[in-house]
Amino acid sequence: MANVIVDWGTSDQAIPGAASFTKFRVIVGSNSVVLPLTERTYTFANVSPGTYPVKVELLSTDEITAGPSVSDSVTVPVPAATAPVPVNITVTLG
Q: Domain limits at 59?
C-alpha cells in the first residue's frame, strides 16, 4: 500500500459557461474525490499495488465536465518482503 499524491496546475481559458465550473474531480483508478477550485493537490491514502489511470477534470455545479481533462498513470509497487535484521548491538557489564 502507498499514498498516491496528485498535483495539478491550471491556466485561465475561455470556456462556455465558465462561471458554472466550480470544482475539480480527481480520479485514481476507481476512486474519485470532488474538490473546490482552490485545491491543487490531493492524497489518496493506502492505495493497493497495481497500475492506475489518474485524471483531473473541471466540473460544473451539475457535474458536467469541461475539457480538456489532464491524465497520467501511476504504478504502486508491491512492497518488498521484510524481516527484522539486527543493525546494532549494545553489551554492558552488570
A: 2-10+18-76
